Amino acid sequence: MSKFVVIVFPDQARAYEGTRALKELHAEGSLTLYGMAVIQKDPVGKISIKDAADPGPLGTAVGALVGGIVGLIGGPAGVIAGAAGGTAVGSMVDLFNYRIGSDFILKVSNELASGKTALIAEIAESWTTPLDSRMEALSGKVLRTWRADFEDEQLATEAAQRKADFEQLRSEYAQASAEAKAKVKAKLDHVKADLKQSDDRLHARIDALNSELKARSVALNQQVANARADAKEKINQRVTTLRAEYEKRSAKLNQAWALTKEALAA
Predict the structure, then answer these.
(1) Considering its fold, how many domains does the chain have in total?
(2) Domain end call among 114, 148, 182
(3) How many other CB atoms sit within 10 Å of the CB of residue 225?
(4) Does 260 lie in the same domain as 159?
(5) Where are the alpha helices (DSSP H) in the chain?
(6) Is there a single domain that holds both residue 21 and residue 144?
(7) Exposed site from 178, 203, 223, 251, fewest CB < 10 Å?
(8) What is the pLDDT along the chain (266 residues), one digit of tens a residue?
(9) Does 241 share its domain with 155?
């Protein structure tokens, strides 16, 4: 399982030294870097993105965290404006899906004072000392939280519930009187549309998961190919952990998708 790190620096110059240090730690195999971004809080409290995360599969999660931080702690005016356009709500959903708690966001808010710059990244690490030592030397404060993927569980549960509702209404329709059939049929059509929506979302989620796994595998294989001999074993352990985690997630999603396809085909 990977982690999100937010590293807060006194100024922008040291934050960019931090990005170089993070890349060096990746190159030497002390950790694996999947994506990163840089944000800054100006003297009046407004947060701006200095370097955005890569838009591809490796940067998606970091981009969501950046959006959450900017939307939720970028100042009262930013939150109100974001809420009006749905941005703040979307940010909260993204943070919820990655199981990023309010306590972590509060810690970031407390550390990211006006004038400071933060490096935000997603990493896998075997131990914390290499990153902490390098960042402390640059006056950086490291905050960590585990990444989780609640959306997988949510989609699987939603699909099972909608399938149960659909089958119950099909049974009810078959036994309904002629007068009641029209009303039950309307309910059945509505639940079937919901079930089709679940089917589409599961399909899209499985595709996204496969793309992310492929991108992470490429990154890890490139890293292990260039790493020193003493670091290769640790990186290979991360590869094993990654594949086991994604196989478990994929199995849950595919099982749920099979349920929706079965119900829709009946």
Answers:
(1) 2
(2) 148
(3) 9
(4) yes
(5) 12-28, 60-73, 76-85, 87-97, 102-111, 129-136, 150-175, 178-226, 229-265
(6) yes
(7) 178
(8) 899 999 999 999 999 999 999 999 999 999 999 999 999 999 988 899 999 999 899 999 999 999 989 888 875 444 433 443 444 555 677 888 898 988 999 999 999 999 999 999 999 998 999 999 999 999 999 999 999 989 999 999 999 999 999 999 999 999 999 899 999 999 999 999 999 999 999 999 999 999 999 999 999 999 999 998 889 999 999 999 999 999 999 999 999 999 999 999 97
(9) yes
Domain that residue 105 falls in? 3-148
Distance separating alpha carbons of residues 3 and 144, to the nearest angstrom = 7
Say whether both 197 and 242 belong to one domain: yes
Residue 249 shares a structural domain with residue 181: yes
Query: Are 160 and 260 contained in the same domain?
Result: yes
Same domain, 13 and 42: yes
Nearest to 120 by CA among 90, 99, 143: 143
- Residue 190 corresponds to which tokens in the numbers above? 């509505």
The C-alpha angle with vertex 207 and arms to 205 and 211, in degrees rounded to 5, equals: 115
Q: Are residues 197 and 230 in the same domain?
A: yes
> How far is the C-alpha of 44 from the C-alpha of 167, rounded, in Å?
57
Query: Is the distance from CB of 125 to CB of 164 less than 8 angstroms?
Result: no
| pLDDT for position 91 | 62
Long-range contacts formed by 229-237: CB under 8 A, 24+ apart: 231/28, 231/29, 231/30, 232/29, 234/29, 234/126, 235/29, 235/32, 237/126
